[in-house]
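Risk register update: the risk that structure generation would not scale has been downgraded. Supporting records follow, first protein first.
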Amino acid sequence: MTTGAALRFAALMLAMAGAAPAAGQFASSTQDYLSEYDRDRDGRVSLAEYQDKLSEIFRRMDHNGNGIVDLDEFDPAVVGPNTRPISLARHRARLAEVFRRQDANRNGYLDTRELGAPPR
Protein backbone atom coordinates (compact mmCIF):
# COMPACT_ATOMS: atom_id res chain seq x y z
CA MET A 1 0.00 0.00 0.00
CA THR A 2 1.45 3.37 -0.97
CA THR A 3 1.67 6.26 1.49
CA GLY A 4 -1.25 7.98 -0.25
CA ALA A 5 -3.35 4.82 -0.10
CA ALA A 6 -2.41 4.35 3.56
CA LEU A 7 -3.50 7.90 4.35
CA ARG A 8 -6.79 7.38 2.50
CA PHE A 9 -7.32 4.15 4.45
CA ALA A 10 -6.51 5.90 7.75
CA ALA A 11 -8.88 8.73 6.80
CA LEU A 12 -11.59 6.17 6.06
CA MET A 13 -11.01 4.55 9.45
CA LEU A 14 -11.22 7.94 11.17
CA ALA A 15 -14.34 8.91 9.26
CA MET A 16 -16.00 5.63 10.16
CA ALA A 17 -15.10 6.30 13.79
CA GLY A 18 -16.76 9.70 13.67
CA ALA A 19 -13.52 11.66 13.98
CA ALA A 20 -14.49 14.50 11.72
CA PRO A 21 -16.39 17.00 13.87
CA ALA A 22 -19.16 19.01 12.29
CA ALA A 23 -18.58 22.71 11.68
CA GLY A 24 -19.09 24.71 14.85
CA GLN A 25 -18.86 21.61 17.04
CA PHE A 26 -15.09 21.11 17.09
CA ALA A 27 -14.40 21.23 20.84
CA SER A 28 -17.35 19.15 22.04
CA SER A 29 -17.07 16.63 19.22
CA THR A 30 -13.34 16.25 19.77
CA GLN A 31 -13.89 15.73 23.52
CA ASP A 32 -16.54 13.11 22.74
CA TYR A 33 -14.13 11.51 20.29
CA LEU A 34 -11.39 11.48 22.95
CA SER A 35 -13.79 9.81 25.38
CA GLU A 36 -14.47 7.00 22.91
CA TYR A 37 -10.77 6.21 22.61
CA ASP A 38 -9.62 6.93 26.16
CA ARG A 39 -10.36 3.56 27.74
CA ASP A 40 -8.45 4.22 30.98
CA ARG A 41 -10.04 7.68 31.35
CA ASP A 42 -6.76 9.54 31.91
CA GLY A 43 -7.68 12.37 29.51
CA ARG A 44 -5.34 11.27 26.74
CA VAL A 45 -5.10 8.53 24.14
CA SER A 46 -2.19 6.10 24.08
CA LEU A 47 -1.01 4.32 20.96
CA ALA A 48 -2.62 1.06 22.16
CA GLU A 49 -5.96 2.79 22.80
CA TYR A 50 -5.82 4.42 19.36
CA GLN A 51 -4.98 1.15 17.63
CA ASP A 52 -7.57 -0.81 19.59
CA LYS A 53 -10.38 1.61 18.76
CA LEU A 54 -9.55 1.78 15.07
CA SER A 55 -9.06 -1.99 14.95
CA GLU A 56 -12.72 -2.38 15.96
CA ILE A 57 -13.56 -0.71 12.67
CA PHE A 58 -11.10 -2.95 10.84
CA ARG A 59 -12.83 -6.02 12.30
CA ARG A 60 -16.22 -4.73 11.16
CA MET A 61 -14.82 -4.27 7.66
CA ASP A 62 -13.31 -7.78 7.68
CA HIS A 63 -16.59 -9.46 6.80
CA ASN A 64 -15.15 -12.95 6.35
CA GLY A 65 -13.08 -12.77 9.56
CA ASN A 66 -9.78 -13.81 7.96
CA GLY A 67 -7.74 -10.98 9.53
CA ILE A 68 -7.38 -9.22 6.18
CA VAL A 69 -9.55 -6.52 4.66
CA ASP A 70 -9.74 -7.73 1.09
CA LEU A 71 -10.52 -5.47 -1.86
CA ASP A 72 -14.13 -6.62 -1.97
CA GLU A 73 -14.52 -5.59 1.70
CA PHE A 74 -13.37 -1.98 1.12
CA ASP A 75 -15.86 0.81 0.49
CA PRO A 76 -15.87 1.13 -3.32
CA ALA A 77 -15.47 4.91 -2.96
CA VAL A 78 -11.93 4.50 -1.57
CA VAL A 79 -10.67 1.69 -3.77
CA GLY A 80 -8.14 3.02 -6.22
CA PRO A 81 -5.44 1.55 -8.45
CA ASN A 82 -2.95 1.40 -5.54
CA THR A 83 -5.34 -0.10 -2.98
CA ARG A 84 -4.22 -3.47 -1.71
CA PRO A 85 -5.63 -5.90 0.85
CA ILE A 86 -4.34 -5.13 4.34
CA SER A 87 -3.81 -7.36 7.34
CA LEU A 88 -4.68 -6.38 10.88
CA ALA A 89 -0.97 -6.31 11.79
CA ARG A 90 -0.18 -3.99 8.89
CA HIS A 91 -3.23 -1.86 9.70
CA ARG A 92 -1.98 -1.43 13.29
CA ALA A 93 1.51 -0.54 12.00
CA ARG A 94 0.00 2.12 9.71
CA LEU A 95 -2.04 3.47 12.61
CA ALA A 96 1.18 3.73 14.63
CA GLU A 97 2.66 5.86 11.83
CA VAL A 98 -0.38 8.16 11.80
CA PHE A 99 -0.36 8.32 15.62
CA ARG A 100 3.31 9.35 15.71
CA ARG A 101 2.68 12.13 13.19
CA GLN A 102 -0.33 13.38 15.17
CA ASP A 103 1.63 13.36 18.45
CA ALA A 104 2.90 16.92 17.95
CA ASN A 105 4.52 17.23 21.38
CA ARG A 106 6.06 13.74 21.12
CA ASN A 107 4.88 12.66 24.58
CA GLY A 108 3.49 9.31 23.40
CA TYR A 109 -0.16 10.35 23.83
CA LEU A 110 -2.77 12.28 21.89
CA ASP A 111 -4.69 15.02 23.67
CA THR A 112 -7.89 16.58 22.35
CA ARG A 113 -5.98 19.12 20.24
CA GLU A 114 -3.77 16.48 18.61
CA LEU A 115 -6.61 14.01 18.18
CA GLY A 116 -8.81 16.62 16.50
CA ALA A 117 -6.08 18.05 14.26
CA PRO A 118 -6.18 17.34 10.52
CA PRO A 119 -4.13 14.25 9.58
CA ARG A 120 -0.45 15.01 9.12
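Supporting record for the second protein:
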Amino acid sequence: MNHTHRLSSEEIATYVKVMSDPTRLLIIKLVSKKEYCVCQFVDMFEMSQPSISQHLKKLKSFGLVEETRRGQWRFYSLNTASDAIGIVHAIMNQISDQDERYIELINKERPVDCG
Protein backbone atom coordinates (compact mmCIF):
# COMPACT_ATOMS: atom_id res chain seq x y z
CA MET A 1 0.00 0.00 0.00
CA ASN A 2 1.61 3.19 -1.15
CA HIS A 3 -0.05 6.32 0.18
CA THR A 4 1.51 9.58 -0.90
CA HIS A 5 -0.85 11.71 1.20
CA ARG A 6 0.86 12.63 4.45
CA LEU A 7 -1.17 13.74 7.44
CA SER A 8 -0.39 16.67 9.68
CA SER A 9 0.38 16.13 13.34
CA GLU A 10 -3.05 17.56 14.20
CA GLU A 11 -4.81 15.16 11.82
CA ILE A 12 -2.89 12.21 13.25
CA ALA A 13 -3.73 13.28 16.81
CA THR A 14 -7.42 13.54 15.87
CA TYR A 15 -7.51 10.02 14.38
CA VAL A 16 -5.61 8.56 17.34
CA LYS A 17 -8.01 10.29 19.73
CA VAL A 18 -11.05 8.84 17.91
CA MET A 19 -9.51 5.37 18.07
CA SER A 20 -8.44 5.74 21.71
CA ASP A 21 -11.82 4.59 23.03
CA PRO A 22 -11.55 0.82 23.72
CA THR A 23 -14.94 0.06 22.15
CA ARG A 24 -14.16 1.99 18.97
CA LEU A 25 -10.70 0.46 18.82
CA LEU A 26 -12.16 -3.05 18.97
CA ILE A 27 -14.88 -2.18 16.44
CA ILE A 28 -12.13 -1.13 14.04
CA LYS A 29 -10.21 -4.35 14.76
CA LEU A 30 -13.34 -6.38 14.01
CA VAL A 31 -14.28 -4.55 10.80
CA SER A 32 -10.69 -4.76 9.59
CA LYS A 33 -11.35 -8.51 9.23
CA LYS A 34 -14.93 -8.51 7.86
CA GLU A 35 -18.24 -6.67 7.65
CA TYR A 36 -20.55 -6.54 10.68
CA CYS A 37 -24.15 -5.53 11.25
CA VAL A 38 -25.08 -3.16 14.07
CA CYS A 39 -27.16 -5.93 15.64
CA GLN A 40 -24.07 -8.14 15.88
CA PHE A 41 -22.15 -5.41 17.71
CA VAL A 42 -25.05 -4.92 20.14
CA ASP A 43 -24.86 -8.60 21.10
CA MET A 44 -21.07 -8.86 21.07
CA PHE A 45 -20.40 -5.74 23.15
CA GLU A 46 -23.54 -6.19 25.29
CA MET A 47 -24.36 -2.53 24.74
CA SER A 48 -27.54 -0.78 23.66
CA GLN A 49 -28.14 -0.17 19.98
CA PRO A 50 -28.03 3.64 20.49
CA SER A 51 -24.64 3.35 22.23
CA ILE A 52 -23.17 1.20 19.46
CA SER A 53 -24.66 3.54 16.85
CA GLN A 54 -22.94 6.53 18.49
CA HIS A 55 -19.56 4.79 18.32
CA LEU A 56 -20.15 3.85 14.68
CA LYS A 57 -21.35 7.37 13.84
CA LYS A 58 -18.12 8.82 15.21
CA LEU A 59 -15.97 6.31 13.31
CA LYS A 60 -17.94 6.98 10.13
CA SER A 61 -17.74 10.77 10.53
CA PHE A 62 -13.94 10.50 10.55
CA GLY A 63 -14.01 8.22 7.50
CA LEU A 64 -12.65 5.17 9.32
CA VAL A 65 -15.58 2.88 8.56
CA GLU A 66 -17.98 2.56 5.65
CA GLU A 67 -21.69 1.97 6.01
CA THR A 68 -23.84 -0.14 3.71
CA ARG A 69 -27.61 -0.23 4.10
CA ARG A 70 -29.60 -3.38 3.51
CA GLY A 71 -33.24 -2.76 4.23
CA GLN A 72 -33.47 -1.19 7.67
CA TRP A 73 -30.11 -2.61 8.78
CA ARG A 74 -26.69 -1.07 8.50
CA PHE A 75 -23.49 -2.99 7.96
CA TYR A 76 -20.01 -1.63 8.62
CA SER A 77 -16.59 -2.37 7.19
CA LEU A 78 -13.18 -0.75 7.29
CA ASN A 79 -12.79 2.19 4.92
CA THR A 80 -9.61 1.14 3.16
CA ALA A 81 -9.63 4.42 1.19
CA SER A 82 -9.38 6.50 4.38
CA ASP A 83 -6.53 9.01 4.58
CA ALA A 84 -5.77 7.44 7.97
CA ILE A 85 -5.56 3.83 6.75
CA GLY A 86 -1.81 3.71 7.44
CA ILE A 87 -2.37 4.78 11.05
CA VAL A 88 -5.26 2.33 11.38
CA HIS A 89 -3.14 -0.57 10.12
CA ALA A 90 -0.21 0.42 12.35
CA ILE A 91 -2.45 0.46 15.42
CA MET A 92 -4.35 -2.71 14.47
CA ASN A 93 -1.05 -4.55 14.00
CA GLN A 94 -0.28 -3.81 17.66
CA ILE A 95 -3.46 -5.54 18.88
CA SER A 96 -2.87 -9.26 19.08
CA ASP A 97 -5.46 -11.59 17.62
CA GLN A 98 -5.02 -13.32 20.99
CA ASP A 99 -6.11 -10.18 22.91
CA GLU A 100 -8.45 -11.36 25.68
CA ARG A 101 -11.24 -8.85 25.00
CA TYR A 102 -10.99 -9.37 21.23
CA ILE A 103 -11.32 -13.15 21.63
CA GLU A 104 -14.26 -12.64 24.00
CA LEU A 105 -16.02 -10.55 21.34
CA ILE A 106 -15.28 -13.04 18.56
CA ASN A 107 -16.68 -15.84 20.71
CA LYS A 108 -19.92 -13.88 21.13
CA GLU A 109 -20.27 -13.37 17.39
CA ARG A 110 -23.40 -14.88 15.87
CA PRO A 111 -24.59 -15.01 12.26
CA VAL A 112 -26.55 -11.97 11.14
CA ASP A 113 -30.10 -12.32 12.42
CA CYS A 114 -31.41 -8.79 12.60
CA GLY A 115 -35.06 -9.71 12.38
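The chain has one domain: 9-107. On this basis the risk owner (M.S.) recommends closing the item.
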